[in-house]
Amino acid sequence: MHRVIGQVLVLGRKMATSGAEPQILVQYLVLRKDLSQAPFSWPAGALVAQACHAATAALHTHRDHPHTIAYLRELGRMRKVILEAPDETTLKELAETLQQKNIEHVLWLEQPENIATCLALRPYPKEEVNQHLKKFRLFK
């Protein structure tokens, strides 16, 4: 395990000094804030798990896309931004908007409740998707 981490760090340093700056890719996640509040009151670990499920599902679903391949090739340079949606309706509306704009994503549905908890985009250049996410603030 230490070897992999060491190789990733060395790879990251090599990339930084090569002179050619690779395109910065970001994976955006939008997590429901209301799940942390009454009446739901989910613990922090459960919310983190939802974000992890959504992120993993998006990466797996879009694993053959060139942006995803590049994102996973640079493990030491991965960037994720976690935003908050106030409720399930807002999250589903965002999913609909992204679908209409052909922005690839996964809407994670927690089972057996079948409720939308988190939305994860595949990795994108920030400038391609931030206009659709600017009304969401960082998750707190």
- The ordered H/E elements are HEHHEHEEEHE
Count of beta strands: 6
Assembly of the depicted chains: single chain
Counting DSSP H or I runs of 4 or more residues, the number of helices is: 5
What summary fits the major beta sheet?
Answer: 6 strands, mixed
Mean pLDDT: 88
Q: Sum up the overall morphology in one term.
A: globular
The proportion of residues forming helix, as a percent range, comes to: 40-55%
Cα distance spanning the termini: 31 Å
Measured on Cα atoms, how large is the radius of gyration? 16 Å
Helices and strands: which structural class? alpha+beta
Low-confidence blocks of residues: 1-18
Strand content: 15-25%
Describe this structure in words.
- It is built from five helices and six strands, in the order αβααβαβββαβ.
- The N terminus is likely disordered.
- Helix content is 45%, strand content 22%.
- By secondary structure, it is of the alpha+beta class.
State the main characteristics.
disordered N terminus; alpha+beta; 140 residues; single chain; globular; 5 helices; six-stranded mixed beta sheet
What's this model, at a glance?
With 140 residues, this protein is of the alpha+beta class. The chain is built from five helices and six strands, in the order H-E-H-H-E-H-E-E-E-H-E.
